[in-house]
Amino acid sequence: MNRVPNDEAVQLTNDDATECKQSAVQLGYWQDPYLFYFARSAERKPPEINRGYFARKRGIELLVEKFLKLTSSNCQIVNLGAGFDTLYWRLLDAGKAVTKLIDLDFPSVTARKCHYIKRNKPLLDKLNLGEGKAFTGATELHAGNYHIVGVDLRQRSEFIAALEQCEIDFALPTLFLAECVLVYIESSSVDEVLKWIAVNFESVAFINYEQINMNDRFGEVMKQNLRLRQCSLSGVSACQNLDSQRKRFTDNNWEGTQAWDMIEVYENIPGTERQRVEKIEFLDEQELLTQLFQHYCICVGWKGAKLSQVNFDL
Ligand SMILES: C[S@@+](CC[C@H](N)C(=O)[O-])C[C@H]1O[C@@H](n2cnc3c(N)ncnc32)[C@H](O)[C@@H]1O
Fold first, then answer.
1. pTM value?
2. With a cut of 50, which residues of the chain have pLDDT below it?
3. Which of 88, 143, 173, 243 could be cross-linked to 203 through a Cys-Cys bond (beta carbons 3.0 to 4.6 Å apart)?
4. CA-to-CA distance for 196 and 219, rounded, in angstroms?
5. Which ligand 1 atom is nearest residue 154's CA?
């Protein structure tokens, strides 16, 4: 059947990610007391999915921690296609709150995020609500150092306006995050955004978690599954391999870039943590996990010599 890709299907991938993360949290892969308030279901996912999400979450976190250490948390984080990510609350609890954290996603997603925050006191209590003017409209939140804004990232002008509205500081070290987001956006739009960031920020890093090897048989099946769900994969041309992921940065004025497939990322997670999670569930499909790890990567781009240290080297 010929299905027309649509934005709603792409927005629903956020619910999937949230439910998968919540499944892993419930089993003890990591702790996140805030995710529960955003998850629609508590359905248990297969062990290889839980382990895969652990590697994704921990791999990104290790790199974010490096960035925070390098900047002493005197920095900004912009989470592109943030969905229901709970980074703001987790950093606060860890005593690592940053100068400014901005979550961007489609307005329909940010509206739901704002709604859940308003409805749940444990989320609300950790916000700097000022004089009660934090929620401006249904899709936005501006509470002290935390901002949520609804934008279509394909529209560069909307993206720039959102950052300006949040009074982004172009001179402060800034980290952009994108977790399974750019694959849904036309490569030309991603290029424009990457170029604009590199030109406008003095000291900036970008952590991108995304698919690779999408042209082999396993990758074709992944693409087919997403197409059946009517998700557009407009940015998939950058997901061929680690080089195509890195090229996106070097082609768009970034000074340096490095990329690791998830097998390497998993091996870079401290051994004690790996041993702990490997005891949580018996993995009867080791081959499937290996294939999943071979089809996802983390790619880092940077501008500013100091930020080249945002990598897995000790
Ligand atoms: C797979 S989800 C990932 C969510 C979150 N980053 C995570 O890992 O939990 C992809 C997210 O990207 C967002 N997204 C995709 N294309 C977008 C666009 N053009 N503008 C804004 N958000 C977009 C979707 O709405 C969705 O929330």
1. 0.97
2. 1-2
3. 173
4. 30
5. 19
